[in-house]
Structures are given as structure tokens and as C-alpha cells.
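sry for the spam today, last one i promise. C-alpha cells for design, 189 residues
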């Protein structure tokens, strides 16, 4: 009888461990899938930015500094994405969002540009992608939080350490880039 109880306890513990392990794997893949959803939208938006810059460059007096910084930030973002550096991506995305906001704000001074159908279409497309990124970022950060909490809870922490599960990093934009663009400052140049 004691051998049967020992064997039964071992089987129950084994299956409990399997359930915990599978739950950790599911959360890890949920984080990966959530990031992939953001990555798709980021790539789509990054493909639209050169088009927007090209349209703006046709207007000779349009602020070239903002356009150059936009393209430089886009290039740095591509490099950060290749390295899967979520912290750097968040920082650069915040900068890029601010620069795109500056482009749209400065465009207010150019009635011909605002009336340009290609500019209008790109502005709408980029704005829609921004909204999608914000929604997906929320889902990604929720998946990261769920993953990280489970990795710190007992008894999951034992399996997580044993099998090398790691905390994921949330995607955060810098505080300075979350604020609205100061349109008045843009027109005082």
C-alpha cells in the first residue's frame, strides 16, 4: 500500500508539473505572438514613412531637418529591430512618433501639401497604423505582464528557473515623446 501511495503521489506531481510547464510555454509564445503582431504594423508604418518624406520634399521649403531626422530615426529603428532590443525600439518609436507629429504639424503651414491627395492618403494610413500599434502594444504589454508574474509565482518559479524561462521586456515609449507636439514652437523657427 505505501508503494501505491508513493507512486500515486509521484504521478499526480508529475502531471501537475507538466501542466505548470505547459502554462509557462503558452505564456512565452503568447508574448512572441503579441510582439509579431506589433512588428507587422511597425514594418508597414516604416514602409510608409519614406513615401511621406518624399511627398513633403517636393515642397521645397518644407523643413528638411525634420525629414532628415525622421529618416535617421527610421534607420536606427531597423537596426534595433534586427537586434530585438525592445527597450531601444520603444525609445526610438517614441522619437519617430514625435517626428511624424512634427511633419503633420508643419504641414499645416503648407496648404498645397495638405491638399495633396497622396499626402492626405499617407497621413490617414500612418494614423491608422499608429492606432493599431497602440492597441497591439497594450496586448503585448499585457502578455509580458502575465508571463513575468507567472515566472515569479511559486511553484512556477521553480520550473521557470529549471528550464531557463526568462522575463520579457514591456514596450514603453519615453515620457517626453508621449506628449503632444508643441505646434507653436514649430512655427516660430
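last one done:
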Amino acid at each position: 500500500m505505501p508503494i501505491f501511495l508513493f507512486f500515486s503521489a509521484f504521478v499526480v506531481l508529475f502531471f501537475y508539473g507538466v501542466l505548470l510547464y505547459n502554462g509557462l510555454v503558452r505564456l512565452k509564445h503568447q508574448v512572441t505572438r503579441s510582439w509579431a503582431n506589433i512588428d507587422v504594423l511597425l514594418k508597414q508604418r516604416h514602409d510608409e514613412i519614406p513615401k511621406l518624406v518624399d511627398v513633403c520634399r517636393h515642397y521645397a521649403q518644407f523643413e528638411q531637418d525634420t525629414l532628415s531626422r525622421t529618416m535617421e530615426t527610421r534607420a536606427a529603428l531597423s537596426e534595433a529591430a534586427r537586434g530585438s532590443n525592445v527597450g531601444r525600439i520603444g525609445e526610438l518609436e517614441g522619437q519617430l512618433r514625435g517626428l511624424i507629429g512634427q511633419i503633420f504639424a508643419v504641414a499645416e503651414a503648407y496648404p498645397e501639401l495638405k491638399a495633396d491627395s497622396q499626402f492626405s492618403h499617407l497621413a490617414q494610413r500612418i494614423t491608422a497604423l499608429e492606432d493599431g500599434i497602440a492597441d497591439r502594444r497594450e496586448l503585448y504589454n499585457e502578455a509580458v505582464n502575465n508571463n513575468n508574474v507567472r515566472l515569479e509565482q511559486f511553484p512556477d518559479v521553480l520550473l521557470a528557473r529549471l528550464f531557463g524561462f526568462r522575463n520579457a521586456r514591456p514596450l514603453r515609449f519615453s515620457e517626453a515623446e508621449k506628449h503632444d507636439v508643441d505646434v507653436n514652437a514649430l512655427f516660430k523657427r
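The mean pLDDT is 86. ok im logging off now
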